[in-house]
Amino acid sequence: MNKDQNIAKRSIYAASHPIVRLNSFRFEQSPFIEKYVTDDTLFAIYCNRFYPLNMGENVIESYWKLRQSVLLYDVPEKPLEIKGPDAVTLLERVFTRRIATLKIWRARYAIACTAEGTVLMDGVLIRIARDHFWYVKANGEFETWLKAHAAGLDVKVTDPHSRVLQIQGPKSLDVLSAAAGEQVPATFGYFHAGMFNFDGQELLVSRTGWTGEVGFEIYCRRNTDHHALWDHLFTTGRPAGLEFSSASSMGIRRIEAGILDYGTDIEPDMTPYAAGLGAFVDLSKPDFIGRSALQTADKTCLLFGLLCETAVPMAGMTVQMNDRIVGHIQIGEWSPTLEKGIGYVRFYAPAEGVSGWLDQTVTLFDQDGNPHVAHVVSLPFFDPEKRIPRGLDPI
Predict the structure, then answer these.
(1) Could you report the per-residue pLDDT of 222-233, keeping only the tens digit for each?
(2) 172, 194, 313, 361: which has the fewest C-beta neighbours closer than 10 Å?
(3) Residue 201, φ and ψ in degrees, nearest 5
(4) Which of 263, 255, 335, 248 is nearest to 74 (CA)?
């Protein structure tokens, strides 16, 4: 496969769905939009928010900038604030892993399930104080769910109207140090959080991201001077080479890193086990929503990575084995690092007659019905110990 085939200008991640005209009524535009929008900007919607999916840039160049230097992304993820004496009680009730053990100024990936044991929401939970949390949720409604299950508890669930910036790449911590000065401790590690002053604005920051690279996220508030923050970041980040990018380069890298997107990769009928997220379910907890169903659920993983030398997996493509359709592609891209097509494949049932789906050879059918040999692998596609985002490995 020619890796330059149409992917340098617009990644498959951005071009895999039809483009339609849409009015912004009922959807939120970013307060940063004036800083980057051009006639070439293609927006998508996530959490009822517009975000720049592609800007006509050379996506492969942006990808390597992310892997080798630093990029800033205007992302649409939507935090919720949970605060009050019963905050921990509520969060223990709705999440599948323990929350009381989360230290202040630490973050933790957390999944919420339905009573049937299927994944309802995933995101990153940040503990700010003993009874104060922010939950950076994925696409979909969750605020109402939290409020419904807070009945009778002394806790408030609110929308802080936060817009989030992600600064990602091996030089990202240089940008943070330049923008926040000596406030950043040497111990500010992966999945840590803190409050930092950016040229007079106190903002929440977490050592997290959606790229599998070293990085951090800045959480604005309603009263944040967004343009002043943007200008301060680019002024102080210029020596490190800070540039802006659309989500297309992030999309390639997050697939390589095995990061899942709720609603696309994690389909609504999937349990955490089927999605390969069983490690984030703690059945030793006394009670949480979905626990009973998960105790008896099939623990087989049905979501894997797929490598293909001759085609790029794309959403909806079918996967066959022994002339039988056994799964479909959730999402896919060309990997510049691996120089192969990569994607997520969801299998419909456990493998029959073999030890499991991992390491199997299957057939991927492209959009024209042509067959391609593909191989089932575990996620992520590389760096399984997350040494890169922890800052432990070179590029």
Answers:
(1) 999 999 999 999
(2) 361
(3) -115, 120
(4) 248
